[in-house]
UniProtKB/TrEMBL annotation:
Positions of the Aldehyde dehydrogenase domain: 27-487
PANTHER family cross-referenced by the UniProt entry: SUCCINATE-SEMIALDEHYDE DEHYDROGENASE, MITOCHONDRIAL (PTHR43353)
Short name of any one Pfam family annotated for the protein: Aldedh
Keyword set, alphabetical order: Oxidoreductase
Biological source species: Streptomyces luomodiensis
Name used for this protein in its record: NAD-dependent succinate-semialdehyde dehydrogenase
Keyword Glycosyltransferase on entry: no
Family classification: Belongs to the aldehyde dehydrogenase family.
Lineage: Bacteria, Bacillati, Actinomycetota, Actinomycetes, Kitasatosporales
InterPro entries reported in the protein's UniProt record: Ald_DH/histidinol_DH, Ald_DH_C, Ald_DH_CS_GLU, Ald_DH_N, Aldehyde_DH_dom, Aldehyde_DH_Superfamily
Amino acid sequence: MLPESSSESPSSVLDWVRTDLFIGGRWIPAPNGATFAVENPATGETLAHVADATAQLGLDALEAATLAQPQWAAVPPRRRAEILRRAHDLLLERTEQFALLITLEMGKSLAESRSEVAYAAGYLRWFAEEAVRIDGGWKVSEDGSARVLVMRQPVGPCLLITPWNAPLAMPARKIAPALAAGCTSVVKPAPQTPLTTNALVSLLVEAGLPDGAVNVVPTSHASALSEPLMADRRLRKVSFTGSTPVGRLLLAQAAQNVLRTSMELGGNAPFVVCADADLDAAVAGAMTAKLRNIGEACIAANRFYVHAEVAEEFAERLVERMSTLSLGVGTDPSTDLGPLIDDRQRRRVADLVEETVAGGARLRAGGAVPEGPGYFYPPTVITDVPADARIIREEIFGPVAAIQTFTTEAEALHAANDTEFGLVSYVYTQDLGRALRMVEQIETGMVGLNRGYVSDPSAPFGGVKQSGIGREGGSSGIDEYLEEKYVAIDTT
Ligand code: NAD
């Protein structure tokens, strides 16, 4: 059972988190005792050693999920809802412990981690409410000779693969709808952040989750574990959140067994500021859209397109606001921005900035890798960015704002849509006609209109183009885990 006190020290939080695999309702070590290290990105120190699942253990987890599937599907919807609702309540009670754990293994500030706990709990509550609303259909066939009954049933055992940037919200956003729909699952968390997933599953068990309904297999060799699972006909669905290249690979594997798929992939969000925008609101929105989660968010603003008339003022104000932020260890209450996840990610961000500046852009703030432990990178603003710069085409995943200018609405729209990604976009304008034209023509699954943040359990989160397939949350979120069965009933 997880502790109930409202404040915790890092060592006591780490003491209660399980580090084994969770299969068939039991916590078990890897047979040969194999583990991998989980690091604190703020210090580079090892937080814990977690059991390292092999391909065989992945298949054992699928076996457990397959055995549990009929029983879980038969659990009445109200009972499924009660387990999720209880998990929601327990999670909110343990906000401090979960926030600390997220900060320790992912790096973001405690304030941001607390928001993630509330956000993740929101999905548990939303899908608790959806579990009892799964419905079907009934009608008379066109020629009147039959009745058409449409049933909605769980897809079956699912593989849920999650990234490290939201270690609680990403698994919650998949496990909650799967359970609500009556599906069992095998969860493979990101190797950088497996502890929070284990803590979430402990909480679900405390809330009444039966054995085998959720199984967790952390591993340091993702593809060796997932390939045999994807090839196994007992698996009925894969839901993946992560990068587009890995998503493509999984889609190709899924094709072999014509597996149901949900893909929440990379983003390259344009942030458009028109000349008539409320500049105070645009700057505040840019701070959120760019720096939330230290820029390590699929919905992070990646490319800023600002009308030439207001571009200089916007850049100056952004630089000014960013200079007030403190970079530091996430557990320090005065920290605004924590470290990036690891050295590889920091190197990638630093290289993108150096390359852009070498290509003729102007560095207005940040841009220098600080000395000392931890993978810190400062908030950075670059203006005069060449249109063909790599930083405009690739997902930055760091606290770097790359600003370009435009003069016409058509030019802004063309630039915003000139990418293979289509997750989210942000548009700032006070002209209603322009707002509607842009919202209609922009090619993204979500739009923040005069708002720097999208994401809400009651809304369909997801992308178009190469940002993904399917939606998480909203009234369509549970559909991803349901099949329709049509029964033709003869009435002649
Ligand atoms: P990643 O694709 O490297 O890894 C994601 C997950 O896939 C991890 O669990 C990883 O271990 C696993 N994985 C890696 N290679 C695999 C393989 N060959 N087979 C099976 N599994 C494999 O992504 P990341 O670096 O962890 O996360 C960052 C990416 O996630 C960014 O591109 C970001 O945009 C995206 N993301 C998208 C959303 C969304 O909702 N669209 C949300 C969060 C993050």
